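Q: Predict the bound structure with BIS(adenosine)-5'-tetraphosphate.
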Amino acid sequence: MINLILFGPPGSGKGTQAAKLVEQYNLYHISTGDMFRSEIGNKTELGLLAKSYMDKGALVPDEVTINMLAKRVEDNPKVKGFIFDGFPRTVAQATALDKMLAEKGTPITALLELVVPAEELIVRLMNRAKTSGRVDDGKPNIIKNRIQVYRETTAPVANYYDEQDKTYKVKGLGSIEEITTKLTDALDSVLTTV
Ligand code: B4P
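A: Predicted complex:
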């Protein structure tokens, strides 16, 4: 079983690359951002709560996010592995994920980190705002807040998995295909050693 974390700042291409890797490795894709947006679309209580954080560029509280993720993992016991996209975003989420996967006997295989400079992230998210309708995409001050939250709260997750020798950095600039190739090369080399 392969359990992959696709990691990186907002707009680094996690969702874009997850779609490619899902096809190549036949994994089950879990994007906590997509799950929250679906809840918002359905106007659920969870969606209303998540929206109040997402619109400001803040993280949704750990307890809510971890419970939602755990349920999705439990609901899919027969898959060949997971791609976690946008989760974990805090060290508390990472330790909860490790505990969850330890109970299943299927630990994280690798964390693949997309490294993209902040100037490029701002350009991509401002562009995406034209079509995404996302409140958190179109305003430079909200984007900057998301990048700051990433640096302060989310980046330590890569160090947490580095201590387990599971973090691999990949430059996230270039064409989508070029980046997919770099990610699959990194993952294939990990898979030959596990
Ligand atoms: P997410 O949905 O995870 O959004 P993201 O980080 O903005 O996007 P991603 O990196 O996936 O970018 P994409 O591929 O689309 O999170 C949204 C919010 O939900 C968070 O801010 C938070 O509030 C909340 N949330 C989610 N998970 C949470 C958690 N675990 N805990 C707490 N809160 C949580 O790419 C971006 C754009 O770049 C696209 O337009 C794409 O076309 C373009 N692009 C991609 N690759 C490119 C390339 N190589 N060159 C040029 N453009 C490229």
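A: The longest helix spans residues 176-191.
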